[in-house]
Amino acid sequence: MDIIKKELPPKYKKVIKEGQIYLTIKTTGLQKVKNSIYGIGYAYLEDGKPKYTILNSLLVHEEYILIQKFIEDTKDSNIITTYYGNTFDLPFLVEKMEIYDFTLPPHYEDDMYILVKTLKDELKLKSMSKKHIGDFFQIAEPPLDGKKEIQLYKQALTNKSESKLNIELIENTRKSLFLLLELKHRILPLEEEYLILKKDPFYRINHCKIQGDYLQIKGFTTDEKKEIYHQSITLKTNKESESFFLEFPVKSAPYDKERRCYYTLDQKLINYSSIPFPKEVYPLKLGKIYILKNIKEIAETYLKELL
């Protein structure tokens, strides 16, 4: 197994918090049972300095050692930042861990794909692919796409004596990790504008969804453990996983003048509260997840009402 550990440029210290890791995995295919993990890249803070580690192995039977080393290195982390990781990286990794009887510690999942999707219109993005994101933000050395990654792995596996191919695999994992870090560095000001609700204690939105007649907002928080129920609003915070859950009633409404679907908030609550509430909720559907155009305004209002 190859282990590469190096320091990161100092500028990335701004985007890595204590207990946070940036994660990317490389697999031999998309099927969790049939395929295996051959590469893991992760960035973190060590003694206050930003660093990264890349684990790489062409040997399928070393997958266990690869994952074990990753768990040992990141056992104290509680935030995992990925790009599309909630859909691929983390489910794939967790299923492999279960096979080897490993457990991922409680953590907050920070998927930057959701943030970028939220800002797609504002940024005028044409695609959500890593390649397009890299080109759009003019990030040097974008990684290979998924198909080319697998092709490169197969070439390296067939020609194990060709050390150059193995080096290319490691370098591609490094590029994927640096794309994550650089993307975060570029969009950090936008993230604060759109998703950070409070700074003391800290509340940051991850995603939302409509569940029946309720809108649910989940995210990261440094707040103490709480369970608050007030006027049909629910707020729960979990100190162990540093997460929060906010829920309140909404109603489906007709399309507006621009043919946009929207929801309205509970009128009784609006009349009862002394805080001015936004009247309309505009969702953008991402699979089963709803990202709200005015999500920050709505969530901030409810937190003020509760806290």
Walk me through the structure.
The chain has 307 residues and is α+β, with helices and mostly antiparallel strands. Helices cover 34% and strands 31% of the residues. It contains 9 helices and 16 strands. The strands form 3 sheets. Strands 7, 8, 9, 10, 11, 12, 13 and 14 form an 8-stranded antiparallel beta sheet that branches. Strands 1-4-3-2-5-6 form a 6-stranded mixed beta sheet, with helices on both faces. A hairpin with a 2-residue loop joins β8 and β9. The termini are far apart.
Report the end-to-end length measured between terminal Cα atoms. Answer: 50 Å
Structural class: alpha+beta
Overall pLDDT level: 83
Number of strands: 16
What layout of secondary structure does this protein have?
Layout: E1 2-7, E2 20-27, E3 37-46, E4 49-56, H1 63-74, E5 79-82, H2 89-99, E6 108-111, H3 112-118, H4 120-123, H5 130-136, H6 146-158, H7 163-195, E7 196-199, E8 202-211, E9 214-221, E10 226-230, E11 233-238, E12 243-252, E13 263-265, H8 267-272, E14 280-281, E15 283-286, E16 289-292, H9 295-306
Helix pairs in contact: 6-7
